[in-house]
Write a structure and sequence with these properties.
Blueprint (H helix, E strand, L loop, with lengths): L5 E5 L8 H13 L3 E6 L4 H8 L5 E4 L12 H14 L2 H15 L3 E4 L2 H4 L2 H8 L3 E6 L12 H16 L2 E4 L2 H9 L7 E3 L16 H6 L6 E6 L8 H14 L3 E6 L5 H11 L5 E4 L7 H7 L2 E4 L14 H8 L4 E4 L4 H4 L6 E4 L4 H13 L1 H15 L4 H11 L1
Parallel strand pairs: 1-2, 1-4, 2-3, 4-5, 5-6, 6-7, 8-9, 8-11, 9-10, 11-12, 12-13
Helix pairs in contact: 1-17, 4-6, 10-11, 10-15, 13-16
Length: 398
Amino acid sequence: MQRRNIVLITPIFPPGGGGAAVVHYQLCKQLGSEACAVVLSADGEEAARFDRAQTFPVVRLPFLAGRRAQIGPRWLRASWNIVGKRLLPRIPLAFLLMRYLRRLRPDVVCIGGLDSLYWILPLVRRTSRSKVVFYIHGEEVPPGNGMGPISKRLYHRSIAAMKKADAVVTVSAWTARRVRELGIPQERVKVIYNGVDHSRFFPGPADEAIKVRHQLAGKRTILTVARLDPRKGHETVLRAIPAVLREFPNAVYVIVGDGPQRTTLERLVRSLGIDEHVVFARGVSDAEIPAYYRTCELFVQPNRRMPDGDDEGFGLVFLEAGACRRPVIGGRSGGVPEAVVDGETGILVNGDSVQETADAILRLLSNPELSSRMATAGWLRSRRFDWRETAAQFRSIC
C-alpha cells in the first residue's frame, strides 16, 4: 500500500450522517491522494459502493461492540456496557490498526472522535513516528459532570490524551476556548472553520416532488435538519408550533433526521394535537438534503446547552441553509453565534425558550422583506466558507 501523508482515523464517516461525518469526508476529499481514511465501523454494501466512488483510499476496520446488558443489577449492567461495549473490542482493533499504520507510514495521524478513540494515541506513538492531531467538533469535551466513576475516569483519560497531541484542531473559537480551559497549551490549539459544498448547496426553486410527498403545497414550511437529540431543540420548536398556528394555520414543521428522541417527540406531537402540522421525514438520503432546504421557507434549530455541558460546536447546517438562501433561527449557545450573525443572517434565541422561538418564527413568517434580507445576507456570508480553504488550512497545520 502506498505511503500516505495524512491518515484520518474516525468512527464517523459517510455514508453515515451528521456534521462530523461531513467534515471528515470533506477533508479527505479535498486532500485527495495525500490522505487515507481509516473508518472504524462495520462494513456494508452501501459503504463499499461509497468507498469505490472516492478519489482517496478508504479502509474500514470492524469495531464491533458487544451487546448491551439487559438484565442484572444496575451497577453490573453499567460496568458491562462500558467494559464489554467499549474496552474489550479495542483488543483486536488495536492489532489491525498497528498493521495498517505500519503499511501506510503516515507523517500525520488525525483522530476524529476523541471520546471513543483517545486510546489510539499511545498506539500510534509506538507504531510510527507520526505526529498526532485531534479534530474536535465540540460535543466531545463537556465538563464531565454527572458521570459515573468509570465514565469519569475514561473522560479524564481522553483529556490527558488530548494534552499529549501535537496539535488540536477545533471547528470554532468557542470550542477552542473549551479546549484551552482543559489545560491544552494555546499554541497547540488551532481554529479551522467548517466549509460549505457550494456545488450542492445553492439557491433554487422548491422541489415539487418533496412538496407532493409531504403535502406541502400552499403551506408555510419550517424545517429542521438534525439528529433527534435533546441538544438540537426540536422539542422547543414543537411547543412553539401552537402559537405559530394561531397566526398561520397553514404552517407545517418538517423534521429531517433520526435519533434517540424520536419516540418522545412523536408522543409530544400527539399530546399537543398538532399531528397534521408536523412531518417526520423518514428515509431522507444525504443527496436530498439541499432540496429540503430549498423547499422550506425558513430553517430553525434552537440548539441549547444540556445539563451535562453538551453543546453545539459550530452549526454547519446554518451555513448550508444560508447557502440555499434561506433565513435561519438558531440557539444562542455554543459555537452557533459564529455561524449565524444575529439580526443579519438570522435570529438567535434562547433554545430553552418556547416564547422566544415562537416570536422569531412569527417575525420571519410575517415579514417577507426581513426574511428576504436575512436570506440574502446568509447566502453572501456562506460564500466565505469553503471546504477547499478548510482543507488548505488543515494541510498547513499538518
